[in-house]
Fold:
Amino acid sequence: MLEHESKTAIKSLWREIPIYGYSHTPKIVIICDCSINDIERNLHKICSMRFLTLKIMLCLLLSLIISRIEANTNNYSISGRISDERTGSPLPGASILIKGTYLWAVSDQKGEFTIQGIQEGKYQLEVSFLGYVPATVPVNVNNSIKGLKIQLKENTLALNDVIVTAQAPKTELNTTLNIGSNALEHLQISNVSDISALLPGGKTKVPDLTSNNIFSLRDGGSSAGNAAFGTAIEVDGVRIGNNSSFGNMTGIDTRSISVADIESVEVITGVPSAEYGDLNSGMVKIHTKKGKTPWNVLLSINPRTEQVSFSKGLDLGNDKGIVNISGEWIKATQKLNSPYTSYTRRGFSAGYSNTFRKVLRFDIGLTGNIGGMNTKDDPDAYTGEYTKVRDNVFRANTSLAWLLNKSWITNLKLDASVYYNDNKSHAHTPYSYASEQPAVHAEQEGYFIAGKLPYHFFADQIVDSKELDYAASLKYEWNRRFKNVTSNLKAGVQWKGTGNVGDGEYYQNPSLAPNGYRPRSYSAYPYMHNVSLYAEESLSVAVGSTMLRLMIALGESVHQRNAIRQAEHTVATFQRQMAAERKHSDSGRMGSDREAAFVLCTLSPTGVSGYSDFRSLIQ
Structure:
């Protein structure tokens, strides 16, 4: 009766209370002396308090929005031309952004641009174009500005000043470090995680693709656990997932990211924006090249690494957009005196970008890698051991930004992405024992007669992981200025599905698996779907010669992963285990006419655990 009451109450609560979190389904173990009604009443109190807090914050945010809608200000415009400083030729496709607002523009085929709906005040125009040095132009808007001429310098090795360190903006609330293409070329990286040497406190390491060098932000001297696992990495807005890889908490392997087409890297080590969500130790945002560029071919050879890459940005002309392509082949050897362990990366990328009617900016791209780790049998070691790891990655993304520039909205942005990581490892491992070893490979609870493993044998363990994630988001942006107060509001909704369609962990010959091992299919785990809402308000108030900045953000995330079914399965498994224990206690010791191992097997999510009773009996 108590069991039925408990399951009924839990189901009722599960329907009414969403499950909050990110990477794993929560598990609750309650050890207490109370009734189910007490538990239900307390949980309802907790959730009611949480929802009351959210309601209060939403009311404050809505009151601020209403007050902004009622405001009436004068709007002006800025128009000008972007050109090459040396030749004077126009630069079509240059990006112009008004810093501190969500207003932007892209220059046309004549290099001309126009930004409308600008309120009175002092601003800074940030102008960037692939292959040129970014420029910042201050403007004082008290009327419409026409004919503004901006000239950019070509980014070449002949420049007197080349920045090769991570630059931190001095006016941002969060700690953000920007690493440009000059610094990346100076460092000559083969793995994107090598840029850690440019971060404060970073150490220069010998580039080595055969080892998994990971990002570990805010680690405090140790990269184990959340410091690495909680560091998020994005490539053109595609989050590199590891929530469903079922591997160790060692962080994200970045060796599959091609370095041939990286334009810049943004590292967020402080408090991130509410829109980033699933992270707790910082974030690394990688931006690939977008824009017209000449052919760029790179040949690099050092004692342990060989690299060939190319990239090209092709302007289709007549406002038809720009296509960027790149390819890379790199092979790294672990040891020169034993060149049997190597990692190979065949990276590629293709992207298309265009701006329609000067207000719709569209981007679509595909990046990936075909390669992996390969360890051949070293004939000098006389072991016959080898491992092969396939590391194929495909990332696809698309985005559409709509510059509405109305009194109630500035930008509306839609993003969608797909991430697929085909990672399959094959370990051919020798085993040798001096005595007979029993092994049981049962997949059900109960008593079983164990088999015997050979004295010497090779076992082939396969780990087949195919993580497949997909995501979509809709973001709303709004900027307004009231005399000495500048307000930036952004809010959005995000949806993400993460799961694994791989065959999981198994042995090619199940009879040679270690004692207690059982196969684990990754595709048997249900997908986790996460929906999150967020809103963030950033206020900047001019106080004399200083600036006071205030940021208010709230976010809520809900995910559910067939938790009721998993809870019922756990309860049923526990009941079977207890029944088997009672049967074992009642039966006493058992006899046999041959040498055997009687094993009571209990199932767990990661394998079989057993209590063995070995007996050597007279045959």
Observations:
- The two ends are 50 Å apart (CA to CA).
- Helices lie at 2-16, 36-69, 181-187, 226-229, 563-587.
